[in-house]
Known about the structure:
The complex is a heterodimer.
Chain A: H1 3-19, E1 35-38, E2 44-48, H2 53-63, E3 67-71, E4 73-75, E5 87-90, E6 92-97, E7 110-114, E8 120-121, E9 135-139, H3 143-162, E10 171-175, E11 180-185, H4 195-206, H5 234-243, H6 247-260, H7 262-276, H8 282-286, E12 291-293, E13 298-299, E14 304-305, H9 317-320, E15 328-335, E16 339-341, E17 344-346, E18 349-357, H10 358-366, E19 370-372
Antiparallel strand pairs in A: 1-2, 1-3, 3-12, 4-5, 6-11, 7-8, 7-9, 10-11, 13-14, 15-18, 15-19, 16-17
Helix pairs in contact in A: 1-10
Chain B: H1 6-11, H2 18-25, H3 29-34, H4 39-53, E1 62-63, E2 66-67, H5 72-90, H6 93-116, H7 121-135, E3 140-142, E4 145-149, H8 150-157, E5 171-173, E6 176-179, H9 181-187, H10 189-202, H11 213-227, H12 238-248, H13 255-267, H14 272-275, H15 287-298, H16 312-317
Antiparallel strand pairs in B: 1-2, 3-4, 4-6, 5-6
Helix pairs in contact in B: 4-5, 4-6, 4-11, 5-11, 6-7, 6-9, 6-10
The complex binds iron/sulfur cluster (SF4) and zinc ion (2 copies).
Amino acid sequence: MQENDIKFLEDSFKKYYFEHFDLIRVPNRTSEREFGFQKFNSGMTRHISIKDDKELHLLLMKNIPSDVYCSNACYSFPNLPMNEKDWKDADLIFDIDAKDLNLECRKNHTIYKCNECSEISTNSNNCSKCNSIKIEKKSLPCKNCIDASKNEVYKLSKILTEDLDVQQNDIHVYFSGNEGFHVYVYNSQFQQLGSRERSDLTDYIMFNGVIPETFGMKKFKPNRLSFPDFEEKGWRGRFSKEVYGSKSKRSKIISELITNGYSSFQKTLEDISDKIGSKIDPNVTMDIHRIFRLPGSLNSKSGLTKIFCNDLAKFDPYIEASFLGENSVHVMANCPIEFKLKNRKFGPYFNEKVSVPTYAAVYMICKKLATIS
Amino acid sequence: MLALGQDEIAKYPFLADAGQYLKDKGFTLEQFGTDPDLKSLVEKAFNRIEVAADGKIYHSDLIGDQASNQAALPREVFSFLLAIVLLKLSGMTTLIKRFALAEARRAEKYLEKDLANISDESKKQLAIRIIDDLFSVQVKKQDDYFVIPVSDYLKHSINFHEREWKLINRHVENGLVFLTPHETVRLIRKELGTYISSKIINAKTPPMISGFEEPVNKLISMSKKFTTFTITTGEYPPCIKHAIEILEKGENLPHSGRFMVATFLLSKGQSVEEIAPLFKNAPDYNERVTLYQLNHLAGTSGSGTHYSCPSCEKLKTQNLCFAIPECDNIINPLQFGKKRI
Lengths: 373, 341
Ligand code: SF4
Ligand SMILES: [Zn+2]
Ligand SMILES: [Zn+2]
């Protein structure tokens, strides 16, 4: 990124942290957490400990980070190297990202930018102008992406509350600031669990590693009576809804399943896992030493805020997560995809000089689809 | 510590404080070495170790939950405590491990029976408390099942490799996992073994007691038999190493895993007789059946078909593969470690 782009982003980010510090949610047990940050065009600084809001505010104003992170874990000594921190426990966290959902709409709003000559194309292998293979994928997520991600959050919440005894008000959902949602679970029985345990928990949530026997199917002499029914709790109940559809079809479908045999049943389980399992990123959940984007901070991939979602159903990130200023700025934009922010449409722009509000300029510059001119 | 009745100590002797127990009964260790009436108990203790070393579960004088006669109960406990003394005096860790494992199996049977006991509530409560106190698993009864919190379940279940232990293949409701008495006890098998062996390892070694020399010497020579038991695993691929580890720990390896180990070792030129002991610790070990199966695989019996080790691809689908970088470019575990030219 060029000097004047960085200067512009830093100025805008600084103003945000000055004016909107109230949006930052300093986690409880602040002094037991590890903080970290990144500056534009530079590496990660980790193993920082912070006492309170004031110290955090100071850090933000002094460093003007592009991204700020905070551990989901609590430690005795958060500022020491990893193996000396003395891990105590960690909130259960989930990352749901539209890019992992294999959505049909993705191809409509994904473009590739050449790092050599800045050419923008829809070709994912090499630059159509200079043939370079150093290309970067850029996506401007659409409404469908957001809705599909919300749907995964709903599935996740249901599993957490129905099966795993998590209270609804202990589930906090945040827009990630880019293409998905971050979910935090507090006060659960899982707080102390290590990485391997969390890994098996993710398989449960994703409906991974299922064996036919769990749903009553056996290799030899399967028994109709052991197949799931609608009233059952947990996965057997969800299986019934998905596979039988309705009560009247249950008996007929069980006969079919038995006739089709064991391996076909296994295949059915794999097929429905996409629909009924929640598509979380397992690596995030099983990482108990992660530093995770700080709630309320800006995401440098978009300039949008990682913001708490009060009412997920109504939540629109392109209105509710955009907090940067209205002042017009001139940019050289090469953004072939239209986007909408704060109820205003922008683009498409084809290598043209335009004047747009700061929030839109930041959005495009963060996506590397514009530069200050 | 739990307050235990006489018959409970006999079932779970590892819960007793050895020194205290002897004192309460008015005995000293020295008496067992010299008193001709008590000496038979040292023999019984030796026998208990011998049986365990052989991979079998010591068959006690308890009939069901009851002692065959009143005198049998203390004899049960004494033989356990004396066995520990003999083991400590011999200093043979292989024997201690085998003994702890066999005692864990034995206790497992009682725990399971006590949990499932519907007529005697106090027996069930004791089993529940042992599981809770020793292994911090909170067990509660709910209808026909035992329920434990998901988090407690996961802490133990991750040590199992079979898919049926994955949380997804369990009945989960309201943050609880539903288990049968058998599954509840099976869940803590490894920890029960570890608990018993750490109790033995941490026990003080007394100075040699006169009258104990002979059985101790016999134990030392007995343990030599087992030093050849472990096959050097240096050159083996991770999948095989892993499976052998499971077998040696006495955990249950699925049949696909046993098939893999057996065919692999047969291909490496080991004999059926050399391989068979590897399966000794398995929960369902039966010498005759094992030999029969191995001979079958080796093609020395029946059909004469010689079975070969499954491919890496196949093993991956069976969750038996634990690939490391050295596994690159090989398609069968047998190729592991062979340099390509
Ligand atoms: S790749 Fe082959 S040799 Fe390596 S662990 Fe997997 S199965 Fe074993
Ligand atoms: Zn180019
Ligand atoms: Zn989309």
